[in-house]
Write a structure and sequence with these properties.
The chain is α+β, with helices and mostly antiparallel strands. It folds into 2 domains: about 90 residues; about 90 residues, Ribosomal protein S6/Translation elongation factor EF1B (Alpha-Beta Plaits), CATH 3.30.70. Helices cover about 55% and strands about 25% of the residues. It contains 4 helices and 4 strands. A 4-stranded antiparallel beta sheet has the order 1-2-4-3. Helix 3 crosses helix 4.
């Protein structure tokens, strides 16, 4: 009994040279097709992996950027909390009276507007205390110096509302303004 390899050799030996050339050409074509399929599969897999790598790199850059932004926001928050804690002006009346004396102003009147949360968020730890101030017969240079002195302190004291009315008979103003201070809730 002849082996399958022997019968293949015998069959090939019976073929004409033209048929053998065609068979060899067909074998080369099949081999090239297989190589093409394998190469295309590897190329597609490589492209897929490269796309996933690029996506992950983009996501890592976004995370790094968000982390940087978070750190900056966290530093700002701690700096503001430190200012609110260390330089809080608890008694606006005394603070404003002392500034008025220093600037040579007679404060006509002050009305306490009370303390509230500084934001609509109920869990906010930042409180706001406000005082409404009335100054009459004040020169504009005195008013601007006083308002500048109010806001240039280490604490968080700001003029949150201002209304000015000039007097026609004199070169002075009447001013009404609200001064607010911010502090951390105890």
């Amino acid at each position: 009994m002849a082996s399958p390899l022997d019968s293949l050799r015998t069959s090939l030996g019976r073929l004409s040279s033209r048929d053998r050339n065609l068979l060899a050409l067909m074998g080369v074509a099949i081999a090239l097709f297989v190589v093409f399929l394998v190469g295309h599969g590897l190329s597609a897999a490589t492209a897929k992996h490269e796309a996933r790598i690029k996506l992950k790199q983009t996501q890592l850059r976004e995370v790094a950027q968000l982390t940087r932004g978070y750190r900056e926001a966290e530093l700002q928050r701690t700096d503001i909390e430190r200012k609110l804690r260390d330089h809080a002006v608890r008694n606006l009346f005394s603070y404003l009276e002392d500034l008025g004396k220093k600037d040579g102003l007679d404060i006509g009147g002050m009305t306490d507007k009370g303390s509230t949360s500084a934001s609509d968020d109920k869990s906010s730890k930042i409180m706001k205390s406000s005082v409404e101030v009335t100054l009459t017969h004040v020169q504009i240079s005195q008013l601007t110096k006083f308002l500048n002195d109010v806001e240039t302190n280490p604490g968080m004291v700001r003029v949150t509302r201002l209304q000015i009315r000039p007097r026609e008979d004199e070169a002075v103003l009447d001013a009404w303004f609200t001064v607010s201070t911010y502090y951390l809730k105890s």
